Give the backbone structure.
Amino acid sequence: MELLSLKGDPMLDNVQKKFKIPLATYVLISALLPFPVTLLFAVISEMQKPAVALVSNRVSEKNLLLKTKQSILIVLDDTYWGAQHDFEIMMPGKVESNDSSQLTSWSATSQTTYIIIQKDLPRDIFYLSTQEIRQLLQSSMREKIVKKGKVVKSTNLVIDEAPGIELVVQNDDGTLGQYQAFLVKGRMYVLGAVADNELTTETVNFFDSFRVYPQRIRYSE
């Protein structure tokens, strides 16, 4: 089955035009979420449903990423928690997609798309050293993100004593992306921002707002 590529697919170009997807959103979703082309229409339609807001600190019985309820008004710049309360983050702008593994938002103010993804990796990950984890994160991000662009900066990061990396990518289409990835107790968190023009203070605040609580992680392979 054909997978979603970043550029050059007439079908994908038609999808982008049909749904009037902002360029930054198109680039970020294409890089981080390699869906089959046949599912793209459903994914984009889901992203364009009304946003939902955080309202409760109770852990849901369902395996949902975020504690939410149906909202009457569109929520802007709200703080969200993981289903296990294992992380929190402030999402700038309007939330466009919210499911069990990823959350995206679009900021019209800065013309920037934001995303956070979580994924539990195989148990073998527990046997890797800090250096090996960073190498894994580096190769994984470069494979999935740096398809049509150039890494202009790579930095080692640490959050709550857990290893991570950051990549800044200049895409061939002119957009600029900043990505961070961390591996905490077997759970990988990927944060991303792609701007049509330039990354702003809003993006800095997005990354700075990320908090992780390892003691709350209930690992599931």
About this structure: The chain has five helices and eleven strands. The first strand starts at residue 52 and ends at 54. The two ends are 25 Å apart (CA to CA). Residues 130-144 form the longest helix (15 residues).
